[in-house]
Amino acid sequence: MLLLISPDGVEEALDCAKAAEHLDIVDVKKPDEGSLGANFPWVIREIRDAVPADKPVSATVGDVPYKPGTVAQAALGAVVSGATYIKVGLYGCTTPEQGIEVMRAVVRAVKDHRPEALVVASGYADAHRIGCVNPLALPDIAARAGADAAMLDTAIKDGTRLFDHVPPDSCAEFVRRAHASGLLAALAGSVKRDDLGPLTRIGTDIVGVRGAVCSGGDRNAGRIQPHLVAAFRAEMDRQAREHAVGTPAVN
Ligand SMILES: O=C[C@H](O)COP(=O)(O)O
C-alpha cells in the first residue's frame, strides 16, 4: 500500500520532504477550499521543486462542479504545473453519466499533455450528505472514462471517518470493482492508524492521509509532523507484514 500525504502548502511540503523515506506521494491541496480543494499552480510548482525528484506529486483539482470544460482546463493546469497524479473530486456530479463526462474531459486534457500522468476519479464516502454520486459507482466511472484510479475521501471533515460512511465490507467491494477494471483503488477520509488493518486486508493500493499525521490529529489547526508520518508508515509496514504472514502463498 502506498502512502499519500496532503500538505497544505510549501512549508508543510518541506516537512513532508523531511519524512520522504516514509511516504510515497505528496498530494498538493488547499484544505480551506474544501476536502479536495485545489491549490495555486505556483504552489504545485514550488512543491514539485521542494520534494525529492523520485516522489510523485499529486494535485487535487477541487471539489468540482458538473462542468467538464472548466474541470478539464483546471486539470491541465495541474499537470502543466508538475503534478503527475491528477485528482478530481466529483462533488457536483449527481449521476454516473455526469461523472463519466467530466472524467473523460479530464483524461483527454491530462494525457494529451503528459500521457504517463495518472488520473484519479474521486467520489465521497459521505455522498449521502451532499447529494453526489454513489461512492460504489466510482470504479465504473473511472474505468469508463479511461482514468487510472478510483478514490474515496470524505467531503465533510467533521471527525466522521471513511468507515463511518462506507463500512469495511463495502470498501472491500469498492477495491474489488476497481481491481476488476484494472484500476488502482485509493481510500481516504480521516483515516487513523487503527484503520490500517482493514485497509491492508482489503487490498487498498493507496491510502490518503492528512489529519492523522498533523499535530493533535487536527487537519486544520495542526501541522504535518515528520515523526507522525514515520509512525504511520511503521504501522502500515507492521500491518503489511502481519497480512503477508496470514495470507497463504499462491503458486
Ligand atoms: O487525500 C487525502 C486527504 O487529504 C485526507 O485528509 P484527512 O486524513 O485529514 O481526511
TrEMBL record:
SUPFAM superfamilies registered for this protein in UniProt: Ribulose-phoshate binding barrel
Molecular function per GO: lyase activity
EC top class, as a word: lyase
InterPro entries recorded: 4HFCP_synth, RibuloseP-bd_barrel
Source taxon at top rank: Bacteria
EC number: 4.2.3.153
Keyword Transport: no
Family matches, as Pfam families: 4HFCP_synth
Reaction(s) this enzyme catalyzes, per UniProt: 2 D-glyceraldehyde 3-phosphate = 4-(hydroxymethyl)-2-furancarboxaldehyde phosphate + phosphate + 2 H2O
Keywords attached to this entry: Lyase, Schiff base
Function text: Catalyzes the formation of 4-(hydroxymethyl)-2-furancarboxaldehyde phosphate (4-HFC-P) from two molecules of glyceraldehyde-3-P (GA-3-P).
Full protein name: (5-formylfuran-3-yl)methyl phosphate synthase
Lineage: Bacteria, Bacillati, Actinomycetota, Actinomycetes, Kitasatosporales
